[in-house]
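User: For a benchmark we're assembling, each entry needs the component sequences followed by a predicted structure for the full assembly. Here are entry 17's components. Please fill in the structure.
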Amino acid sequence: MKPGVTNVFVTTSDCSTLVVESISPLGYTINKASRYKFELIADSKLIMAPDTIRVFDGLINKIMVTNKGNKVLISVDIEYPASYQIKLQRGIPERLEVSFERSFIKNAIKDKVIVIDPGHGGKDRGKRGYINLLEKNVVLDIAAYLKQHLNFYGAHAIMTREKDVSMNLTDRIQTVALMEADMFIGIHTNWDSDKNVYGAKGTYQGEKSKILCDTIIGELGKKLRLKNLGIADDCVLTGISQSQYIQQIPNVNIEVCTISNPVEEGWLRSPVFKERVAAAIMNGIIKYIMDGIYTMV
Ligand SMILES: [Zn+2]
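Assistant: Structure for entry 17:
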């Protein structure tokens, strides 16, 4: 009897690992189609339904699992060319693991000082959702997840506020200059008087910031399918434009989704959603840095 593929998924930590589970040991061939695509053909039948699995962990974008003749084709879209290692884990189920190296991502972001600014706080509640969710609280959660993710990769991420406290613009700017930050990421939510409006948007100052802003909004669209409402050269924190220092570094304000839309407000109540928003923002930051590295070559 032919082995059957029962499950395909990705785990992400030091590596992005493609895991293929089957009921008996898998025979396979590697068919690396290009630098950005990895293909594995398993001598097996497919027991799970054919599927496209959206991963977007900063290295693996998507996995397509399909039938190919009497075999199974597992096709992996990767964001950057990466080396990989294959391991067979015997057991029930049998597991074939393909681990893609992520250390180059770590190297790119390592020691970068990134100031994360959760907007508003304390008396300044920011915008309010249809069902009373407050912007100041959700942006603090997202910022905390983002800090956690970035620091895991060896960056030096700092939040302008860690609690629900009032903060003025001068304090926020001072953190950036004091820490000699490489990047400033403000976290906000969009608001519209029309509750049918939904999606993400961003503001920035200057050309470098424009690319960063565009990249982050793009990653929110890829990972979470959030609608792109566009970006504008107009910093929400207008006071910041008075700071000499911040103008020299990429600085953006990201309105991650629209709190005035009841559906997106509902999503913003979910810790899983907020964590994924943070992961998408990090993917944008990594991509911005990596693209800079690649174009310098
Ligand atoms: Zn705001």
